[in-house]
Specification:
Layout (H helix, E strand, L loop, with lengths): L1 H25 L5 H6 L4 H31 L4 H27 L4 H18 L1 H16 L7 E4 L2 E8 L3 E6 L4 E5 L8 E3 L7 E9 L5 H14 L10 E8 L4 E11 L5 H19 L15
Antiparallel strand pairs: 1-2, 1-5, 2-3, 3-4, 6-8, 7-8
């Protein structure tokens, strides 16, 4: 609601200032209160405060309702969050329009003032806000990600919890709330891990020495992924084997690609699989990479 208030007040100030300047060119400057009364409906301003307060209460109730329903119907969590975001946009826009209609006397002079001066005032005063607002609409239409998606952006990684008029809010895996202006997403790259789905691919790497039993190690990694309680078995599991060069040694990398059944279990899935693999490697005496020394036989 801060965004709505900021936009409404900025527009109101621009109209009043421009109207005062217009009047000064035609007649001697009158009292400021009289000048304001020609443009502003003071009774409407007071009513607008109640409208904003009512909209704020509606949004609070809607947010709590979406949270409770998401907890009760976990499979519909992303759908509920999407509808919640759309509802918030409707409330924001409707509140801004109602506040304008209640607070301003809309006549030909006011329309002329709005058409001639508001664009300049907005451009200097709230250009970043307008850019973020337009970017928010583009995000809703183009949908590079959705509410509930697990996204990587600008070095941050977490779940999108809200797409607002001015910014996007992300909850990181460390439970921090990161606020990102919408216009940042128009020029920078973002990556969505699940893109509207509950399941998401998780990639885990395991390194072993060149002289170890690669086939057995591959079976262990594959079995650990298949038997995890967090795995989504409707999608395929792969274990890719590749020889890689690390800092001072060459190793065999076993890369597990599997899908977790819900993004919120991503780290639990990684922990579960790693514990299983490490335990099995220890039993089978499969060793990590190490420097290997070759004996050079004389020719």
């Amino acid at each position: 609601m801060k965004t709505v208030l900021l936009g409404a007040l900025s527009l109101l100030a621009a109209v009043v200032a421009a109207s005062s300047a217009h009047a000064q060119m035609e007649a001697p400057p009158p009292d400021l209160v009289i000048q304001l009364s020609k443009v502003v409906r003071w009774g409407g301003v007071a009513t607008s405060l109640f409208v904003v307060a009512g909209a704020w209460m509606v949004l609070r109730v809607q947010t709590e309702l979406v949270v409770r329903l998401s907890q009760q119907f976990s499979t519909k969590r992303l759908t509920l969050q999407k509808f919640g975001t759309i509802f918030q946009f409707i409330v924001y826009v409707a509140t801004a329009i109602v506040v304008m209609l209640l607070s301003l006397r809309i006549d030909e002079r006011v329309l002329a003032v709005i058409g001639g001066t508001v664009a300049v005032a907005v451009g200097f005063a709230i250009k970043d806000l307008v850019a973020s607002f337009i970017a928010g609409i583009i995000i809703m239409i183009d949908r590079p990600f959705q509410v509930g998606d697990r996204v990587s952006f600008g070095g941050e990684y977490g779940d999108i919890i809200a797409i607002g008029l001015r910014s996007v809010r992300m909850r990181t895996l460390d439970d921090n709330i990161v606020t990102i202006p919408n216009n940042k997403f128009l020029s920078d790259l973002s990556s969505s891990g699940n893109y509207g789905e509950l399941d998401m691919q998780v990639v885990m790497d395991f390194l072993i020495g060149l002289d170890q039993d690669v086939t057995r190690a591959r079976d262990i990694v594959n079995q650990a992924g298949l038997t995890s309680r967090y795995v989504f078995l409707s999608k395929p599991i792969q274990v890719l084997v590749k020889q890689v060069s690390e800092a001072n040694y060459v190793a065999v990398r076993l890369r597990l690609k599997a899908y977790v059944l819900d993004t919120k279990y991503e780290k639990a899935f990684e922990t579960d699989v790693n514990l299983r693999v490490l335990e099995a490697f220890a039993k089978e005496k499969i060793q990590p990479p190490a420097l290997l020394h070759r004996s050079i036989m004389p020719g």
